[in-house]
Write a structure and sequence with these properties.
Blueprint (H helix, E strand, L loop, with lengths): L39 H12 L18 H6 L16 H7 L14 H12 L9 E6 L6 E7 L18 E4 L6 E4 L1 E7 L6 E11 L2 E4 L5 E8 L3 E8 L7 E3 L6 E6 L5 E6 L4 E5 L4 E6 L6 E6 L5 E6 L3 E6 L8 E4 L4 E8 L2 E6 L3 E6 L10 E4 L4 E6 L5 E6 L4 E5 L5 E4 L7 E6 L5 E6 L4 E5 L13 E3 L7
Antiparallel strand pairs: 1-2, 3-4, 4-5, 5-6, 7-8, 8-9, 9-10, 11-12, 12-13, 13-14, 15-16, 16-17, 17-18, 19-20, 20-21, 21-22, 23-24, 24-25, 25-26, 27-28, 28-29, 29-30
Length: 473
């Protein structure tokens, strides 16, 4: 899973995690337009609906902050009062927008200073909420008041096929035999031939953005995860031989952010923004266990190659390790300085975690308490995705600074940097033999590099570019 700048409809939070930006001191001088009072329903609510509402709703709202009602919107979450009437400098809503508090909100491109100034004015003018229904209108001459022209409810979620645009590629997985690559984007999964770049098949995925894809260890099943933020998680599982009608699983109360199949078994695990992990019997479609050990959204799950260990990573800054004998409790807790965005087992006795603190850390798989990682390496921005090849030889990560790094399996030898991509890296995968690396980016493309005889991936490599994120159907 990743934490990044995806349109807030897609994810995720505590998650609006991107690098901090320089702050401007003071605000632009008032103009004649600023002499008129800020009207919440006309000036503020449309921005909140566009940038915040898809994540900050429901019982699992990131940071405990919901914008569903006036009371919740003003009150704020676990980190302080969002709106202190008349005191924008003390309001956490502004502090997150400017980056004074981390993570910066909203994810991706920061709000313009003009927009932040508008929010400041609204709060300094008293932070009043006239209506929770958007109002579009013009001010009557000389009055400073607004004459409504029409009102609209919150915009509906776009329908599949309604908009033709590039959707970020946010999930990737090579099939166990390495002959296919599954790429997830908006409401669709495309099966790609990694040798030719040809799109072999397009599958209708779960609702909204596909945040995770995973193959069963025998390659006979493919699962894709997503769902409607703040409403429900959805998992779609296909028979990867017949490609008939898929099975749909629902059980989470929020978007499913990660999925992992247990090696050699008809069992898989899902993580969700509802702060839970669920274990499923793939044969019956029934939940067998729900884990509630995290305090914030859970972004990723992984099994060790032998299936004896299981791990989950969360916005609560921890990764937790379980024995798959019973999943009864976390036997070990690994810590980061910020949300754990992704994790993988390169081998049975090693877990690697990545975080919004811009670090990837290697941990021993043990039932004993662990204070420090075996090793830790940094990146210049949030590390959104990690992957290891099935042969255990290659480990790769992708980050919000558009960079990819390739390591040996225990992450103690940096092999090469991939070329800097055109957009943020949201997903990575390595072929079973470790010879091919794939990266999914915000520009809707999949980049593939294949190593030749004795040739490592390098900055001068020219990747094959596939565009599975083009369009929405």
């Amino acid at each position: 899973m990743f934490i990044s700048r995806l349109n807030s409809r897609y994810l995720l939070f505590p998650l609006p995690l991107i690098a901090a930006v320089a702050l401007f001191q003071g605000a632009p001088a008032p103009t004649s337009a600023q002499s008129k009072p800020v009207l919440f329903s006309r000036d503020i609510l449309p921005i909140l609906n566009k940038e915040c509402r898809s994540c900050h709703v429901g019982s699992a709202a990131p940071g405990g902050y919901s914008v569903e009602t006036p009371e919740k919107l003003l009150a704020g979450g676990r980190h302080g009062k969002a709106v202190v009437p008349g005191k924008s400098k003390e309001s956490t809503l502004i502090k997150y927008m400017t980056g004074e508090l981390k993570p910066l909100m909203p994810p991706g491109k920061p709000l313009s200073m003009e927009t932040i100034t508008l929010f400041r004015r609204w709060i300094d003018e008293g932070g009043k909420i006239d209506s929770m229904v958007e109002t579009q209108g013009k001010a009557e001459p000389g009055s400073g008041a607004t004459k409504p022209e029409k009102t609209t409810s919150i915009p509906p979620v776009p329908q599949v096929g309604a908009v033709k645009q590039y959707a970020p590629v946010t999930a990737l997985a090579f099939s166990p035999d390495g002959t296919k690559l599954a790429a997830g984007a908006y409401r669709a999964v495309r099966i790609v031939d990694p040798k030719t770049g040809k799109i072999l098949r397009t599958l209708n995925g779960p609702a909204d953005q596909v945040l995770a894809v995973a193959w069963s260890s025998d390659g006979r099943h493919l699962a894709a995860a997503g769902g409607m933020p703040g409403a429900t998680g959805e998992l779609v599982v296909w028979d990867a031989v017949a490609w008939g009608t898929p099975k749909n699983y629902q059980g989470h109360a929020d978007t499913i952010s990660g999925i992992a199949w247990k090696p050699g078994a008809m069992e898989f695990a899902t993580s969700s923004l509802d702060k839970t992990v669920k274990i499923w019997d793939a044969a019956t479609g029934k939940e067998t266990k729900t884990l509630k050990d995290h305090a914030d959204p859970v972004y990723g799950v992984a099994y060790s190659p032998d299936g004896k260990w299981f791990a989950s990573g969360s916005g609560d800054r921890s990764a937790k390790l379980y024995s798959t004998d019973n999943y009864s409790r976390a036997v070990t807790v690994f810590r980061h300085g910020d949300a754990v965005t992704a994790l993988t087992f390169p081998k049975n006795d090693l877990l690697i975690t990545a975080s919004a603190d811009k670090q990837a850390r290697a941990w021993p798989v043990t039932t004993q308490p662990v204070e420090n990682p075996l090793r830790s390496h940094g990146e210049g921005d949030v590390i959104n995705a990690v992957a290891a090849s099935a042969d255990g030889d290659t480990f790769v990560w992708g980050a919000s600074n558009k960079r990819i790094k390739v390591w040996n399996r225990v992450m103690d030898k940096h092999r090469e940097d991939g070329p800097t991509l055109a957009d943020w890296v949201y997903a990575v995968s390595a072929s079973p033999d470790g010879q091919t690396v794939a990266a999914g980016a915000g520009d809707g493309k999949v980049y593939l590099w294949t190593q030749g005889e004795g040739r490592a991936l390098g900055k001068e490599a020219k990747p094959m570019i596939v565009e599975p994120g083009k369009g929405t159907n």
